[in-house]
């Protein structure tokens, strides 16, 4: 009798535990993956911590009960791989919608950063940045380098392969990541999603840099050491990224300094030309002042010299210049030379006629001046 009573109690407890287990199982909500992700639901995106807590509750907490980082590698089954691919697709779709909806705001922030860097003197326009953002958005979804290559090639052609413009384009690609993240922070996005979106933007930037400066990517690849440890890979990636940014920054600064040097050289040449022109004008003005001062000097004009010049057919203005210098006829015939005639202010044919008459006189050739004949030793 006692044995039957004990067996009855055991059976009742087993039934009660089974029913309780079934009731508890019926109260657990089913886990559902988001089928469609919209831009407005970005803030309410299911947290990786919550999902991991439901599936790996005992593995996702440390001794203090605090949740670990969301990026914990799970098993290598097909279900886990499909889950990661789906999450990556969702993030790419989310980021592409952000670029589409907030594209104007991103371009404004992007352009302002570029203008601040180059003090407002930018070759690139908002139209160039918009086209570059559209190609990176296409690469984000399609993951094809074709659209990136074609867009950057067109931008190079439009910029005439100018060194300064290419340097600005390189630095603009670097600033794209900062601009997108700055706009993303305006939305209530969870930290682990922000980290994932930042990685996607960095991939777009690296793709554009690969097309624009392939020699830079090759140099970085040649100097990077492979490693099988995750921490070493992460450290190497950060060092490569830092080096990439530094090289882009240095190339941009070099182009800016080079352009400033060229502009300074042009300004210097223009200044030299202006100074030369001012010096020439001042010299001409000084000559005119000196000439007017000489003309204002009171000199005794030699009538015989004036008559002799008139007999040679010299113009009155030229006769006035030579007579105004105070020369006498004897000084002209016996002592003056051709260079002194030029220094007196005579030019061209006037100097030639006077000097020919002087040479003929000195050679003893008879010269006729106003009907007055001079012999070899005679005077006018």
TrEMBL record:
<keyword id="KW-0175">Coiled coil</keyword>
<protein>
    <recommendedName>
        <fullName>MAP3K HisK-N-like globin domain-containing protein</fullName>
    </recommendedName>
</protein>
<dbReference type="InterPro" id="IPR046873">
    <property type="entry name" value="HisK-N-like"/>
</dbReference>
<feature type="region of interest" description="Disordered">
    <location>
        <begin position="49"/>
        <end position="75"/>
    </location>
</feature>
<feature type="compositionally biased region" description="Basic and acidic residues">
    <location>
        <begin position="53"/>
        <end position="62"/>
    </location>
</feature>
<feature type="domain" description="MAP3K HisK-N-like globin">
    <location>
        <begin position="83"/>
        <end position="215"/>
    </location>
</feature>
<dbReference type="InterPro" id="IPR013761">
    <property type="entry name" value="SAM/pointed_sf"/>
</dbReference>
<dbReference type="Pfam" id="PF20302">
    <property type="entry name" value="HisK-N-like"/>
</dbReference>
<feature type="coiled-coil region">
    <location>
        <begin position="258"/>
        <end position="285"/>
    </location>
</feature>
């Amino acid at each position: 009798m006692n044995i039957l009573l004990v067996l009855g109690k055991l059976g009742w407890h087993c039934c009660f535990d089974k029913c309780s287990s079934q009731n508890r199982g019926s109260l657990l909500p089913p886990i559902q993956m988001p089928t469609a992700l919209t831009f407005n639901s970005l803030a309410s995106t299911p947290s990786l911590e919550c999902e991991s807590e439901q599936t790996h509750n005992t593995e996702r907490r440390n001794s203090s009960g605090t949740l670990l980082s969301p990026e914990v590698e799970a098993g290598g089954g097909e279900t886990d791989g499909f889950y990661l691919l789906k999450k990556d697709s969702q993030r790419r779709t989310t980021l592409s919608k952000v670029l589409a909806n907030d594209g104007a705001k991103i371009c404004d922030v992007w352009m302002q950063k570029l203008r601040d860097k180059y003090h407002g003197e930018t070759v690139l326009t908002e139209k160039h940045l918009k086209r570059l953002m559209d190609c990176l958005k296409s690469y984000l979804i399609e993951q094809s380098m074709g659209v990136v290559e074609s867009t950057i090639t067109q931008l190079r052609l439009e910029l005439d392969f100018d060194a300064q413009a290419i340097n600005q384009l390189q630095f603009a690609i670097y600033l794209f990541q900062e601009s997108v993240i700055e706009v993303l922070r305006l939305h209530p996005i969870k930290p682990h999603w922000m980290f994932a979106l930042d990685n996607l933007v960095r991939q777009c930037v690296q793709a554009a840099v690969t097309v624009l400066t392939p020699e830079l990517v090759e140099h970085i690849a040649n100097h990077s050491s492979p490693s099988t440890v995750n921490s070493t890979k992460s450290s190497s990636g950060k060092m490569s990224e830092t080096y990439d940014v530094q090289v882009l920054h240095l190339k941009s600064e070099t182009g800016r300094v080079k352009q400033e040097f060229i502009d300074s050289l042009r300004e210097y040449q223009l200044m030299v030309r202006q100074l030369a022109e001012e010096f020439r004008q001042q010299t001409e003005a000084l000559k005119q002042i000196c000439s007017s001062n000489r003309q204002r000097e009171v000199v005794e004009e030699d009538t015989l010299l004036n008559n002799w010049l008139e007999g040679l057919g010299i113009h009155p203005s030229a006769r006035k210049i030579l007579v105004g210098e105070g020369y006498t006829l004897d000084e002209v015939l016996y002592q003056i030379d051709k260079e002194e005639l030029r220094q007196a202010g005579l030019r061209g044919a006037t100097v030639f006629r006077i000097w020919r008459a002087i040479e003929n006189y000195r050679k003893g050739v008879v010269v006729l001046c106003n009907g007055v004949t001079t012999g070899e030793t005679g005077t006018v």
